[in-house]
Design brief:
This protein is α+β, with helices and mostly antiparallel strands and 153 residues long. It has helices at residues 22-30, 63-66, 87-102, 119-143, and strands spanning 4-9, 35-36, 48-49, 147-152.
Length: 153
């Protein structure tokens, strides 16, 4: 049980397993600048501020460097119903994040968030979730199927 991020395809593909997505959801919601409502209790809807207004950014010429590691997934997360996206666009972002993680980047989350003290374990979990997402998006790209990411409780 718990919150996870799931990849939803516009049509089902055979032999595609559901990604676990729990570490990815924890890291995404716990990243500085992503606001999860403190008023939500078990079973309530989780509110997330996708605007990033509370997070000051230092701009560089590299767009990927202007975003926190996982906020790059925000455009693919459904907010008002399913918004379909190209699997190749998703693959580009997922592979960029995976490259940064494999080069030694770690997941940074707000110290107030649960499990904030075990960055290595959380980073490994996020890496595994993103590798599962990459596999799903490769299959979706080959099949010409679009996707979106959703929160699953």
């Amino acid at each position: 049980m718990g919150v996870s991020i799931q990849c939803v395809l516009e049509r089902e593909l055979l032999d595609i397993q559901r990604m676990e997505g729990k570490s990815l959801a924890m890291a995404y919601c716990g990243e500085p600048g992503i606001n999860v409502s403190e008023e939500a209790e078990a079973g309530d809807i989780i509110e997330i501020d996708f605007s990033g207004a509370s997070r000051p950014k230092e701009k560089t010429s590299n767009p990927a460097a202007n975003d926190s590691l996982l906020s790059q997934l925000t455009p693919f997360i459904a907010r008002n119903g399913m918004e379909w996206h190209s699997a190749s666009d998703g693959l580009t972002v997922v592979r960029r994040i995976l490259a940064r993680l494999r080069d030694g980047a770690t997941v940074a989350i707000d110290p107030e968030f649960p499990f904030a003290d075990d960055f290595e374990y959380l980073t490994e979990g996020v890496l595994g979730d993103l590798e599962e997402l990459e596999t799903i998006l490769i299959a979706a790209e080959k099949a010409g199927v679009q996707f979106c990411l959703t929160f699953d409780v």
